[in-house]
Amino acid sequence: MLASNAQRQKLKSVFETGQRLTYKKGEFIIRPGETPSSVYFIESGVAKAYAITKYAEENVLILRKSDEIFPLIWSHTGQERGVIYEAVTPLVVFKLQRTVYEENLLKDSDLLLPILDMTTEMYRIHSERIMTLEYRSVRERIVSFLLQLAKRFSEKTEEGQRITIPLRHADIASSVNASRESATRELHSLDQKGLIKLQKSGILLCDIAKLKAFLE
Predict the structure, then answer these.
(1) Exposure check for the chain: N or C terminus, fewer CB within 10 A?
(2) Angle at Cα 79 formed by Cα 74 and Cα 85, nearest 5°?
């Protein structure tokens, strides 16, 4: 990360001058067909960005967590791509008009490094997703996706590394270009092999080393 804690806090302080909003799990922040008018900073919780395919299926694009802003591309270019944002967990955000956001960036260069960090992280995530989709089997793609997810959304436990966000099998399927039925079948197979555990609190990765070896 290039930005200091002080610079990240300064960016948050800019958003704190805006409107503070709370959302329940499953609520829309940016609805289908809605053109954004503001930029959002996540104080706590997780939001997912997704698009609807021509087959009327969700295509999960990225997950956003605390101290990140969205929609990031639109906030800088003004180009709207029809991306929907929905709360994956209870969510608290600060909402700031795009014009106010731009004015602050132009007058304070300290705000640019946190934005660059987020942009770089988004590029890394999308690059890893492309690498995941290069695996031939659904099982390999799921393992790769879970390992990537654990880098951003997990906690260490005595049993292993637990992914802490409640993702549906359909979300995982859309992220690895598979049907929900195939994803569910492979997740249960990985569970039976002892590589993961499907739990109500999230997916537990029982042995990171064995999962990584599975991809070699």
Answers:
(1) C
(2) 50
Question: What does 126-193 look like in DSSP terms, one character per residue?
Answer: HHHHHHHHTSSSHHHHHHHHHHHHHHHSEEE-SSSEEE-S---HHHHHHHTT--HHHHHHHHHHHHHT
The contacts of residue 144 (CB under 8 Å, 6+ apart) are 128, 131, 132, 135, 176, 215
The domains of the chain are located at: 5-109, 135-214
Degrees to nearest 5, angle at CA 17 with 97 and 39: 30
User: Per DSSP, what are the bridge partners of residue 154?
Assistant: 163
CA 84 to chain CA mean position, Å: 13
Dmax over CA atoms of the chain, in Å, equals 56
Cβ neighbours of 147 (radius 10 Å)? 20
pLDDT > 70 in the chain, percent: 100
Tell me which of 3.40.50.300, 1.10.10.10, 3.30.565.10, 3.30.70.3340 is the CATH number of domain 135-214. 1.10.10.10
The CA R_g of the chain, rounded to the nearest whole Å, is: 18
CA distance linking residue 154 with residue 3, whole number of Å: 23
- pLDDT above 80: residue 80: no
Q: Tell me the whole-structure pTM to 2 decimals.
A: 0.89
46/106 Cα distance (integer angstroms): 28
List, edge to edge, every strand of the sheet that includes 19-23. 19-23, 91-97, 38-44, 69-70
